[in-house]
Specification:
Blueprint: E1 6-9, H1 27-40, E2 44-47, E3 49-50, E4 56-57, H2 60-73, E5 77-80, H3 90-93, E6 103-107, E7 111-113, E8 116-118, H4 122-134, E9 138-143, H5 146-157, E10 166-171, H6 181-188, E11 196-201, H7 206-216, E12 219-222, E13 229-231, E14 234-235, H8 239-252, H9 260-267
Parallel strand pairs: 1-2, 1-12, 2-5, 6-9, 9-10, 10-11, 11-12
Antiparallel strand pairs: 3-4, 7-8, 13-14
Helix pairs in contact: 1-2, 1-8
Length: 270
């Protein structure tokens, strides 16, 4: 079994300091959290930016500052979000792509997101994908339910996406697919041969889905964007604490953890 890629999702667009006092918000805080996660075993960081007031932003300048500060500390893979928050326009959401990161997220469909709607029309997906490939950015295909996997397969056949694909299954979001083991298996068994995949899950589902992904040969996303607790009723001290637990569990299962350069090879980034 290939080595495990751990992605740390540091901040997200919904979590607040009131909910998680240790949430990194400024570029310096996000860069420091990324470095701590790198030391704990993460090979990639999934980044959402916040402005001076702590509000979600897709502004190029914030992502540029975060990227440069992270790169000054370590060689972890910088993966910005193009999902942003549900109220951001497609034009706003695309801004981080212009930094030419090695990888960026590409949401593969529309779904309910709690009381909001996360809108991703087919035309929007095509525009995002085209620009990513023009700039040499590999898309991580964010799939919140099975229909989004089907969208990816159809767009692969149309030549809009390029093999090998890398999926991120984001499970347990209210309004989208659940996060039971059967849900993960359904997603994994639906993707094209030769694809790689990561599993993420919200709240209490994060740890069991992460453990299943380790055993199934996939990769793992963990961090405050998806879950702010270490265990029931106990807030996590840091993103790095969540990363360290996954790294330790994977090694206990006999599966080594990938360095950033090893992750680049697995994902076809180099």
């Amino acid at each position: 079994m290939e080595k495990l890629i751990i992605t740390a999702c540091l901040t997200g667009a919904e979590v607040t300091r009131e909910q998680q006092p240790n949430l990194p918000l400024t570029p310096d805080e996000i860069a420091q959290a990324a470095y701590e996660c790198y030391l704990a075993g993460a090979s990639m960081v999934h980044v959402h930016a916040r402005d001076e007031e702590g509000k979600p932003t897709q502004d190029y300048k914030y992502y540029k500052a975060i990227k440069e500060k992270i790169e000054a500390k370590c060689n972890i893979i910088f993966q910005p979000s193009t999902g942003g928050a549900t109220w951001h326009t497609p034009e706003q959401r695309m801004q981080p792509i212009e930094l030419k990161p090695e990888m960026a997220t590409l949401s593969m469909g529309t779904c309910n997101f709690g009381s909001d709607v996360f809108m991703n029309t087919e035309d929007t997906i095509k525009i995002f994908a085209k620009r990513m490939y023009e700039l040499g950015v590999k898309p991580e295909l964010e799939c919140f339910e099975k229909g989004m996997v089907d969208n990816a397969i159809r767009m692969l056949k149309q030549g809009i996406l390029k093999a090998p694909l890398h999926f991120d299954f984001v499970l347990g979001v209210p309004g989208a697919m659940g996060a039971e083991l059967r849900d993960l298996l359904y997603m994994v068994e639906s993707i094209p041969a030769g694809s790689t995949w990561t599993a993420a899950a919200v709240g209490r589902f994060q740890l069991p889905i992460n453990m299943a992904a380790i055993m199934l040969g996939g990769h793992v996303r963990t961090g405050f964007e998806d879950n702010i607790y270490y265990r029931k009723g106990e807030l996590a001290k840091s993103n790095a604490q969540l990363v360290e637990r996954i790294a330790n569990l994977s090694r206990e299962f006999g599966r080594e953890v990938a360095t950033p350069d090893e992750a680049r090879v697995i994902l076809g980034l180099k």
